[in-house]
Structures are given as structure tokens and as C-alpha cells.
Amino acid sequence: MSLRLFDTGTQSVRDFVPLVEGEVGVYLCGATVQSPPHVGHVRSAVAFDVLVRWLRRSGARVTMVRNVTDIDDKILAKAAAAGRPWWAWALQNERAFASAYAALGVLPPDYEPRATGHVPAMLELMDRLVERGHAYAAGPGDVYFDVRSWAEYGALTNQRVDDMTDVPEDAGSGKRDPHDFALWKAPKPGEPGTAAWQTRYGRGRPGWHLECSAMAHRYLGESFDIHGGGLDLRFPHHENEQAQSRAAGYGFARYWLHNGWVTQGGAKMSKSLGNGLLVTTVLEKAPAVVVRYALTAVQYRSMLEWTDDTLAEAAATWDRLAGFVQRATERVGTASDDEVAGVELPAAFAAALDDDLNVPAALAVVHETLRAGNSALAAGDDAAARAAMVTLRGMLDVLGLDPGSAQWRTAGGDGRHAHALDALVRAELDARSAARAARDWATADAIRDRLTAAGVVVEDSPTGARWTLAAPTPAHDTSED
């Protein structure tokens, strides 16, 4: 592979060399299902979806694991406030995340383990750490990782323990050191009895960090290629994962990748700050493919500032891409999925994605191909137009944005609606054509004005009139968190 990735563990761009040639194991920290997803939550899934698609397009056999944290302090608290069983609350939100991923065209992971389904694996890992002297019981149900027992603690984020200002959660009185973190947590007063498991250390439930180490080991082995997640997970979550896994004697992740945040007004989008845009709310304003384009178009490590113009700009670009594919298909016929999947991609596009998934540079190549394709259509060069269309679809397929794919063929809408709309507009265009033939310019202009007022753009060409929907105009966002 010629892929190079920015490893946040070494703070450098490294050649990506898989542990096993031709195979890649990826573990992505998934959702803690305390609430429905907002746009900031799904950015990570979309970013790593592009990575997986590119690895597979490059010939690698990828095993993708994305976990679900379905037990957590916040889940228990929010479920109690809502008067719901914690497990029902977690499942409701897990399904909301699954719906959001599917709507945005995120490929399903090969494995999607839930924390509550892997308690035995967590207990095995915890026992191993205790036996090796890296963890200790601090009271009935409480077990902590001893950070000072592991000399490399802080290596992922390049920190010394004594310099760390952020003390992890779980400030229990039985800690030997304030930086020690919980592997196992005793039930708190008022928590439901179903949210605890009996162990030789007492009843309790897993700490957040222990979950991911146990599940990554279960599905990817002692060492694997890539561990990913949002930038905010580097510390303490990923630092703690690495420490406990390596203290247990495992190699764990060889490359660490972290995506940037979605921000509003420069602040990280989050429920706690009151600036979250629920995915369901956003999808009421724009087709899912437009939302996906907005999330994909920025390089994954960059911050994505979400403004009133974000969706409008993405919609305008999507309309140009999808419009060309539609016009070319009408002229030269469709391309099969196998043809799109097998087309040779431009060297500059491949080089851009091999350069730490530089999607903006890759999209520059997409737009060069778009311009060439439009020129070929205008010149009547069907062979060149078809070649450009297939190549453009091939590139966009890698980004999960192929306008000719089954998911996006109707821009994420209901195909019945698109068919009905097309039939109605075609009837209007036929009436306009008849009026023009009869030199009834007033009627022809009135029909065009009526379509324009309805948001339909009419384009006259030598082969007849065709129509598209006008790009949406930006509107001030008044949605609630």
C-alpha cells in the first residue's frame, strides 16, 4: 500500500503497513447511547467509512469493528429521569444511531459489539491486570488501574502523570492515586440492580475504558492495525485503553487516528453546550446525501464549522454532480455497479486519498472530471462523456457519494415521490413545448414562470427541455439541541 496516515500516537504521518499483508483490522469507538445522535456524533462514522471504502478499493480485506457502549453513568441517569428501564433507554438510542448511520450511507461494521454482551471478556482482562500488579481492588465492587505501575502511561498523549491537570472521573475514596481510573465500579445508591454483575471483587459494572480494550481484543486479537475515534477521546479514554491493554501484555493498536469535531461558533458541538443539531432535525432540512457530502468534504482531521450556509453549499455542489450523472446517463446509458467499482481512478485522486485521506484534494479531481464531462456533453462527444461519467461515479463511490448508487439515485428521497414529480413536470414541459410550437409565447412563458416559482429550473437544449430542482436557499437554523 502507498497509504500514509497521521498517527496521533507519534504525532507524525506514517506509511501504513498492515500487520498482515492484504488485511486490515480497524476498531472505531462507537456511540455511548445516552441520547439520539447529533451531527457531531456521526462525523466519526462518516470519516472512518471513507477510510474503510478506500482500503477496500485498494484491495485490502478489512475487518471493521464499531462498538456500542450501552451501560454508563449518563445512560442510567437519563433513563431514570425519563422513568424508563436503562436497557430500554439504551436500545432506543442505539436504534436512533443505527438509523442515522444507514440514512447517511455508512457501511455496516463487520462486528458491532455491545458492552453488556462482553462482561466475561472484561472480567478476564481485569483479572489479568490484577494478577500482573497493574490493578487493585479498593473496596466491594471497585477495581482501579494503577497508572504509576505502568511506566508508559501518558505515552499516547505525550504527558507525564505528574503534569496531568485532568483527573479522570471516578474520584473514589479508595484510590491510591487521583489519576488511577476505574476498571470496575460499585453500584451507586439508587441505581437499578439489573445494572450490576457479581464478580469476585463484589457487585459492580464495567468502567468505560475497560469495555473497548476487551472488545477490541475479542474481535481483532492482541494486536491490530488502526484504532479510531473523535479527537476528544484521546485523553483519558484512549490513553487508558492503551495503558491497560499493553500492561496486560498485548500490543493493541499500531496506528491511532482521530477525527476533528463539528463546531458551531468555534465550539465543539455537544449536548452539554446546548449546540447539538439532531440528525433527525437536519434530515428534515436537506436530503441525507447532502448532509453526507457536508460531513465528507472536509479532511477528517480538520474541524468542520457548521453554519447556516453549510447545507446550502453542499446541496449546490451535489446538484452539479448528480445533474451531470443524470444528463450523461440519459445520453449514453447507465453504467453497471461492476463497471463503476472496477474503473481505473485518476492517479491524482488516488494520491490525494493516500495522503492521509485528503478528501478536499480528491474532490478537486472530481470537479476536474465533472468539467471535462460537461464539456464532452456540450460537444456531443458521447464516448468522452461516458468515460467521464463512469470515472466520476467511481471516485464518488469511494467517498460514499455515487449519484448512480441505489441509495442516492433519488437523492435520499422516496422514489415514488420523484416519479410523481417527474411525471407532473414533464406534463408541464410538454404543454410548454406545444405552446412554443404554436408560437404562443405568453403561454410558454407562463408555464416556465410557474415552474420557476415552484423551485423547478428549466434548461432548454438541442435535445429538448430538461428540468432540475433549484438549490435550496440558506435559512437561519432555529432548531433546539
From TrEMBL:
This is Cysteine--tRNA ligase. The lineage of its organism: Bacteria, Bacillati, Actinomycetota, Actinomycetes, Micrococcales. SUPFAM superfamilies: Anticodon-binding domain of a subclass of class I aminoacyl-tRNA synthetases, Nucleotidylyl transferase. It comes from Cellulomonas flavigena (strain ATCC 482 / DSM 20109 / BCRC 11376 / JCM 18109 / NBRC 3775 / NCIMB 8073 / NRS 134). Binds 1 zinc ion per subunit. A motif ('HIGH' region) lies at residues 31-41. Its EC number is 6.1.1.16. It is found in: Cytoplasm. Its main location: cytoplasm.
